[in-house]
Amino acid sequence: MFQRMITNLHLEKLLWIVRSRMGAIFLSGLVGALLVGGVGLVKGSTIYRAEISLYVYSDPEVMTDTDVNITNSDIAQARGLTDSYMQILRSRSFLLDVLETSGLDSYMDYRALDSEIGAEAVNTTSVFKVYVYDRNPERAQLIANTIGELAPDRIISVVKSGGIEILDRAEMPSAPYASTSVRMMAMFGAIGGIALSTLWFIFVGLNDTKIRRRYEITDLFTPEIMADIPQMPTADAATLRKGCEKELTEAYRNLRASILNNREDEVCQLYALTSADAGEGKTTIALNLAAAAVAVGKKTIVLNADLRKEPEESGKPEKPEVESESTEVCKEETKEEAGKESEAKTSREGHTDLAVFLRKETDEIRPEIMENGVNYLPLGDLSDEDVELLFGEGFRSVLSKCREEYDLILVDLPPLGVFSDALCMAGEADGYVLVVRENVTRTERVDLIIRKLESAGAAIRGFVYNGISRTSPDYNYGVKARNYGFRENNKVKKKEKLKVQTNVG
Asked: What is the C-alpha separation between 107 and 8, in angstroms, rounded?
């Protein structure tokens, strides 16, 4: 988990996480402010402080003989006794006496009283002060004065070398010493809510490995990104055809330029298209790339070798249901049809499919010719139980025949991250084209298929970055590209209009 977070750590991603979750973060801050502020309002309290001043003597005679001079040494010794006196004042027996004398023994125990007492020495003097903190100002005064009454006798009885005298008795506190600030607590609650929610969203965001920007591919993997395919609103709009959007046409022109490298030593190019998982658009990209290649005069064929798709997904026609009067008649008809399957397909549809060729029912490849001129060889009646056929001589023979006739061969394979059948082209293809989809493909899945291909010794041609948002900073074909030439055309029109007006005048 932490390795994944470190891999995803990027300043841009951190800023994006915070920016995209800004509303939730502020809402968390508001909730934190309300909760903590509410607790402060309900549980908050006002504290009052009462104090007494005591004078410490190092010599007991000072208390009764006013002619004795007090020296600095006496003061220093007296200050040394202060800590001892405080230990006596906070002893269990003394606190119990204070509670009994003040009549508060039924209200609190000695532990609670101990938590309300504090003391400090006055600098360079033998004076120290005892403080009592309580929510009730009268109770604070009562406890402080009770301590002042009992302290001298108790200290003298315990410490024989010194004494203590009360200087000032406690007065009723007129103003609170401290009170709970609901506003301050609400502010701390807001800060805490914002901080915790931000950390949580960053934690979740860094553990989300869905590809969101191009750098998440280029920073982690060596193969280049050959083209960016823009996100289209519908599946129909994503099909390359005459009159489709300029952005889509330009994207496939870029991909075509990367694929058709026009090497003189290679008559035909063979590429396998796969992805990490299903739903990333490899089939659509294969067909659109083929259409773009046909547009520049390249004879192109697309082979559907994805045995993992259902018939309706792969374009394979579903078998018609046969109604019969008895099961026996149905069985006989099935046997007759099985013997003539190849001939029936060829005569009825005018083409063969991959299944017929792999089962050696024919040695002639007759693909479908689509309206855009792309040759398409459908899968036919194959299932995932026939995977071994893709690794056999029959499939190699199909590729060999296609190389003799076509300029470009595109093989649509199942997702390599799920099925290993996609490795059937490892030794045959000029390169694998890996399709990744923005906000769908995960980086660890891409890493998996690259490791599989490298282990099999397959060449990787590059990535196709599918579904890039048109508002993404990575999308190059933006407003400037769409409006290219618009300004110049307007200038020409304005000049022509000006000439006409001048001639009229």
From this structure: 60
Burial of 412 (0-12, 13-18, 19+ CB in 10 A): buried
CB atoms within 10 A of CB 84: 15
Which part of the chain has CATH 3.30.1890?
Answer: 46-63+71-179
Tally DSSP H helices, then E strands, for the chain: 19, 13
Segment 201-227 shows an average pLDDT of: 92
Helix axes 182-207, 11-20, angle to 10 degrees: 130
> In terms of pTM, does the model score above 0.70?
no
Structurally, at CATH architecture level, domain 215-317+327-482 sits in 3-Layer(aba) Sandwich (3.40)
Residue 25 host element (H or E): helix 22-43
Q: What's the token pair of residue 57?
A: 């003597």
* DSSP annotation of 442: B
CATH 3.40.50.300 domain position(s) in the chain: 215-317+327-482
In three state form, how does the secondary structure of 391-459 look? Answer: HCHHHHHHHHHHHHHCCEEEEECCCCCCCHHHHHHCCCCCEEEEEEECCCCEHHHHHHHHHHHHHCCCC
Q: pLDDT tens for residues 353-408?
A: 888 888 877 778 889 999 999 999 998 887 767 788 888 888 898 899 999 999 99
SS3 of residue 399 by DSSP? helix
Q: What is the pLDDT of residues 301-323, one digit of tens each?
A: 999 998 877 554 444 333 333 33
Q: What is the fold of 46-63+71-179?
A: Bacterial polysaccharide co-polymerase-like (3.30.1890)
pLDDT at 333 exceeding the cut of 50: no
